[in-house]
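Predicting holo structure, PMV bound.
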Amino acid sequence: MPDPAPLAVGHAPGKFILCGEHAVVYGRPAIAAPLFQLQAQAVVYPDRECLVVAVDIDRWVRVAAAPADDPFARVVRLVCAELERPLPPWRIEVRSEIPIASGLGSGAAIATATARGLLAAFGAALPVERLSALVYEVEKLHHGTPSGIDNTVVVYGRPVWFVRGQALEPFVPGATLHLLIGDTGIASPTRLVVGDVRRGWEADHGRYEALFDGVDAIVTRARTCIEAGDVMALGKLLDQNQALLDEMGVSSPELDRLVTAARGAGALGAKLSGGGRGGNMIALVAPGSEETVREALLAAGAKRVFGAEMAGEAG
Ligand code: PMV
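Done. C-alpha cells:
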C-alpha cells in the first residue's frame, strides 16, 4: 500500500563554526553560521503509534518504550510536553544529509527538523527562543556540557555571534564569505574531545585560560573584519585560531594535512571547525581560487568537500 499523505514536513540546516570553538564552552565568543547546503528533514505520517524512523541508519524508535536518553524520543517527548499533548499516533521519518559526529551540527539539525515537523502536524508554533531551548535539551544527550551554539545557529538559521548565556546580537557580514568545508571522514564525538579539553583545563588552569583568552581576542577581531568585509585579515585570524586549537590538543594529523593543503593552494586561511580530532575543517577562499583549493583538499585526503557561504548584507 502506498504511504498515506504526510501530515507535515520539518526542515533544518547544518551549521559550521567559523571561529571560537572550545573556548566558547568557557564563556568566550564564537562565530557560526548555518550550512544551508546540507539539510535534515522530518516527514510526519499517520500511523498506529508514535514512532521515529531514522531512515539513513535504519533505526526504528518506539517513543513510548524508548529510554530517557534516546535523542529521537527525547525531542518528541519535549514537544508534546511543551504543547501539553499526549504522544500522537504518528510516524516521523527523519533523513539527513549532514555527516554524523563531524562538527556540522547533525544532532541539532535532526532535533530541530523533528520538532518543526511535529509542531506543524499539531498546527502549533513555538517562539524561536523556546524551540532553541528545547533543542538544547536534546543536545545535552550528545554533548554532555554543550555551549548552546549548535541549537542557536541551527534554529535561528543565520550567522551568530554567540556568547554562552547571553542574548543573541544581530550580526551581518559586510561581504559574503566563500568557504570550503573539507571532511576528514573520521567520526569524532564532540563529547570526548570536550572532555579532554576539560581535563587539560582542570590540570593547568593558567595555560588553558590563556589559550581561551587568545581565542577570545581572535574572534573579537574576526567579527570586525567580517563586518568590514576584510577577508585577507580574516584569513590570518583563522590561521591563528588553528594554532591555538592545535595547542589545546584538538587537531589531528588528518586535519593538519587538509589545513596545510588548503593554505598551499591559495586559501586565505584555514582551520578545523567544530569539536576537532576528526570531522571537518574550513578554508576561507577568494572566489577565483575555489576550484584549486577544492582539488588540493581532495588530493590531501578529504573524503568530501562542500561549498559554503556566509551571506553578506546584500546576499
Ligand atoms: O558540535 P561540534 O562538533 O561543532 O562542536 C561544538 C563546538 C564546541 O565548542 C567544541 C562544543 C560546544 O558545545 O560549543
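The chain is about 40% helix and 25% strand.
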